[in-house]
């Protein structure tokens, strides 16, 4: 299995540009896959490394410079992602001042399909004793120190991109994230496996949230969120206003104030593997995100159907905890405690559907899971999921 | 009209270096004009793009990386600009921490002839609810996402540099500045036209201030500020101390505490086009800045005649509003309200004079405008122009 | 004496890479010295200039981009430095948010053998009126604007690396640091001479601290700190707990809370030249740091024998003052007052010993100095050295 190291700072290795395809390896060329790496130039994207992982049908732009996040993707001509007001991204972390705007500087770089939040903190800005934490934490704005690719030389010739990002400093967290993206040529699927390793000598707390963001064509008036739900809690009074229709989406609405719903989902078996889906109004297109509630027990749905110039988008956010103030989450014991050397694993699969049958099949899977439990939908923010009124 | 695109991030286009002159286009070479672009290297200027627009007599260094500001210029051997304590600029925005120093980090990069202040905010640091705004806002530290040049192929063969800078983020302002610099080969004039477009879906407020900064040879003991003035208000008690001689300048004085005067000017006709001038003591050199009070109704004169090692400089600052605390300016309704898609235009002309007759002619123009109105000079800070004592 | 300029921003000169050795100059090649400069690429080190000054026995990695600090060194196979949790350094200043983490962002880049603290401030984060100062000040995160090397063409063919770093802004300090590193081919010694020049027009205060950081093989269980001591004051109650064994070091201890001791040392003659030494348990290896108490009157010992994953390290920190809150240090008059144009010089020598005799000889030198004075060891934090309880 050929492995190519693109970045390895421990050995002072970094690759400016790189490209590979099946023909280069003497592998079957029928799927037309390719992996390429280049460094973007100019403006706020100057110096951002971008890896395009294209399996022939599904193309994903991975950003080693932005914590191995996913800028955007494409599946058979459909855009995966959203139209952020940030139009000149991907923005280099050196141009994102996390302490800026009173701790909201993270928003200056927010334009991704997948932005990870964490790892010391993943909620709103907060001051704790002498320390200040900015919105959604730091991991998305830390460049990877190690990046490599692999191409399996036996069918189905799986394509792999791996990276490592450290959130570490003296007197602080020392957490390593090892992430691995995998896809099979010609498939509609991307698998993600993240290992979070406590490299410190003392127990440490992990807060990880996967901020998946989608706009049209998956988000539109009448789109629906589909999942097997145990409970739904509105995070704020504003979210409570819309709790009766929490799983359907409206048209773009200038000035729409975001609504956030905190959920517990129902999964299969002890691992709790569960599908969540955003499907178009007509049910012809959908994005499915699968993960295990044993790894990511807290799910947040972010409805932000603002006008098209402001960011018409919804977020599907599986996580270790809810994006509440850090002190609140700690009080409810939702961070993952890791002993020295211990690892927490999170696995997710992104699947893109463009046939009504496939979408109906996921809906049937959800119905079967839901059959066991009637969802509890609270009509106001309440502990333990959300700070009370 | 040949147009060359140097940066266009939407199409992932960026040009490392570029140069063009009349001979390259088969145009008349008698004026010796040239336009060149390069990327500065090393220290705090690493990665700063610089465009030199040289019309043969007047040379202007434009900084796409610093919000299309003007680093400095030269006119027939005379320096346009000032000696900032920042001697290793132009400083890359990634080296300017706007949240640093308690919100005064902007000063770390301040060494320009023209620094724009705004667009969400252009005053002193302020905390407003959960948001913090640093000194003079962000626009000067946002790299342009689009830069191009044009050379008119018919007389007088005008030279044009254009750029676009977005101040935009989710949940925030989405304002685009389209700026255009124009000059005619061999002339003593630079024209600036900025369009500020609200790309958001809701009404937005614009705060734009043009911080033009000049030192010797235009600033010296006995230099004078010349303009047709309706009113002058000292911004602070310190400024009030010097209000009797607000329009004359002293020699460099170590430890001089800045004095700021807020003015309304008198312009021609309904547009209110008006000249402002800084002229040397003997009246042999001057810089004239023309603009329209209908576009930029608020003028601020910044007197900062500190020692030569600290920054002996004065600022001529036409603006949409005064550089007061944001809350104060909003209360007085001085920000420009822009509907979705609406544009505010600001046009300015910089003219360099080196003949007493030309200077006398501007003085006569000012006198004629002033003849209609006697200036009101307040002797203390007062509303509505300045927060009271 | 050949002098090569690597960076001179005033003349827009910067050198991407460079290497020189004795053979290049026709000098004796028996010591195998070399000086090389390159720019690191990738991750958080992207764009960091590194100069390796290798005298054949002693190798030192100087970081012009990080305020001319020393990343790490090597002496005959022994590492000079420590294992910071920051494993992907040296970190570019654009990736260090000094305003981040509530003023503790400096720690994100802290992995050096020598990190200078200062120059306006070198203590803990503090808000003073409208201004905020982050941990340990800014100088270590300001790139040099001037860098050059010299090789003496007469025996002993001394090798010199020089750099200039300005901490300067409008309305603020305007201090220039001119630093010079010198070493003789084949020697075990590095000399440092820093000149701090007040380029402003008014008196200014200088705060400079040399944060020398060492781990194994010099730091280990049973290592000792050796110096001629007039007084020792624990900085905090926590430090007071260990004051009885302030000069010996324990094994790595996960969760060990740092202990800081503030000292006055005894020097030779009126200049007060004095050796300080960290020696291994068996006395076979040591690092000696010599400086003059007339130049650097305040010495701080930082004991941070945390676990190996957190940063097992000790700091030897000669300074103009103690790393206490800025207001406290000013009240006790410990900053250096510099008139306009005035210079403060600090000279240090780093010497690496790997023979017991050499180490015993330094111990004898210390004993002789100490013979004149019995050290005062206070058992609690007390003024004037430390804020009281």
TrEMBL record, chains A, B, C:
Q: Which CDD domains match?
A: Aldose_epim_Ec_c4013
Recorded superkingdom: Bacteria
GO BP term, example: carbohydrate metabolic process
A molecular function (GO) held by this record is:
catalytic activity
UniProt-recorded name of the protein: DUF4432 domain-containing protein
* Species: Tautonia plasticadhaerens
